[in-house]
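Tokens for chain A. Residues wanted.
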């Protein structure tokens, strides 16, 4: 990484990584729009119930991809370590994929029970889940490859591969759902085809650059594997928790508001996923820059990049919330035409998006601690926002405020996490100041 202004570096890495993840969010949004318009509200509920399995696969690939790509940055120039990290991507993803395939196809009844699937929606859930599972390995490997390609100095190509896959998904969503009338199954097949295209484009990059990435590592470095999982585990926790939260939210929405609430939550969560990927992308763009400066022992520059990224995220979160506040009904009308359903979902979207400011701060802070190699601290904060704070609010708020309380669970959870991160950072600053005072 050449010496450049910090602002230029932020733009150079954040724009491609952010736009790349926004493209991934389009997979979810486009599927929801086509399913809602072409199949109906019941299919939206089925889509939301099936999606946690896809989220779990993303969680696994993000853990492996973030861990491997961070180590590639920290060991920049050491080719044998870079190749070893790349080889772990294939081997680990394949092992986890085999487990997921076994669960979906051979333990489907148990999986559907855990997901909270209604008997009336079972056929639709299977129709979406089975084709997606077949193509899941391409999603997992391309997600990891995307992070590796970005950290190998080709962020624009990484973005291009994701964009091509998303456009492929949009095209085949329309073909399969409307002219061919394949229903929710058509949306799943279109998603898999987009992921396969992204995989092939990234494979072409490695072939062109003559980067050797063996399926099995030549040797197993347990210390390197341990560090890879330690760094990437917070990314896994965040995405895995998103899957668990989605299941629990579906169950609670079904309990307090019925099937229409689950359908509304599907399109609200799909829309908010765009914002979450926006800030996740900013965090992923921050990661290689901070890792580079900490690797060179230029810690103050790394901290300055983090401060600039937080200011940028705050500005973006204000703009996003303002857009939702003024256009909430227009946004929801993309997914369905029923006026009462639109109004119900629009109110939910506004309440749900009050969390956006805290989400921006939390995701950037966790990415920062990952980037400096402090996986333990990143894991603590990830666990806090994913389970420790969330579970009490998930059962307390709806008991008090019903469906309104459900829409506010995320805000209370993320706000509690932000307060804990803020208190920790202030404690560190105060401790550092006192240590300097003692030395003087």
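Reply:
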């Amino acid at each position: 990484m050449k010496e450049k202004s910090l602002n230029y570096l932020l733009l150079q890495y954040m724009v491609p990584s952010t736009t790349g993840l926004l493209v991934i969010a389009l997979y979810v949004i486009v599927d929801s729009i086509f399913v809602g318009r072409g199949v109906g509200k019941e299919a939206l509920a089925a889509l939301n119930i099936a999606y946690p399995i896809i989220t779990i696969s993303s969680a696994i690939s993000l853990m492996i991809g973030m861990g491997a790509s961070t180590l590639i940055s920290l060991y920049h120039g050491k080719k044998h370590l870079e190749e070893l990290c790349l080889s772990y991507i294939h081997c680990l993803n394949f092992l986890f994929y085999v487990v997921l395939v076994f669960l979906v196809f051979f333990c489907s009844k148990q999986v559907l029970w855990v997901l909270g699937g209604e008997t009336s929606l079972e056929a639709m859930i299977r129709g979406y889940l089975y084709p997606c599972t077949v193509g899941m390995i391409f999603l997992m490997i391309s997600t990891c490859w995307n992070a590796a390609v970005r950290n190998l100095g080709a962020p624009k190509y990484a973005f291009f591969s994701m964009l091509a896959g998303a456009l492929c998904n949009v095209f085949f969503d329309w073909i399969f759902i409307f002219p061919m009338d394949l229903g929710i199954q058509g949306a799943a097949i279109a998603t898999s085809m987009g992921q396969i295209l992204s995989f092939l484009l990234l494979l072409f990059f490695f072939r062109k650059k003559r980067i050797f990435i063996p399926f099995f590592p030549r040797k197993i470095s347990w210390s390197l594997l341990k560090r890879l999982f330690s760094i990437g585990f917070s990314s896994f926790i965040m995405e895995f928790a998103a899957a668990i939260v989605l299941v629990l939210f579906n169950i609670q929405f079904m309990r307090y508001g019925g099937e229409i609430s689950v359908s509304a939550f599907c399109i609200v969560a799909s829309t908010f996923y765009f914002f979450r990927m926006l800030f996740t992308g900013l965090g992923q763009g921050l990661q290689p820059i901070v890792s580079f400066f900490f690797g060179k022992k230029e810690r103050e520059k790394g901290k300055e990049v983090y401060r600039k990224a937080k200011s940028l995220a705050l500005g973006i979160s204000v703009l996003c919330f303002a857009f939702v506040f003024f256009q909430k009904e227009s946004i929801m009308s993309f997914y369905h035409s029923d006026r009462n359903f639109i109004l119900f979902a629009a109110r939910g979207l506004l309440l749900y998006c009050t969390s956006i400011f805290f989400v921006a701060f939390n995701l950037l802070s966790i990415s920062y601690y990952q980037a400096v190699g402090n996986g333990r601290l990143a894991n603590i904060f990830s666990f806090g926002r994913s389970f420790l704070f969330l579970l009490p609010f998930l059962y307390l708020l709806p008991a008090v405020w019903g469906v309104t309380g459900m829409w506010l669970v995320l805000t209370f959870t993320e706000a509690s996490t932000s307060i804990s991160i803020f208190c920790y950072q202030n404690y560190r600053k105060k401790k550092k100041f006192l240590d300097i005072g003692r030395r003087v």
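Confidence is low (pLDDT under 50) at residues 436-440. Residues 259-295 form the longest helix (37 residues).
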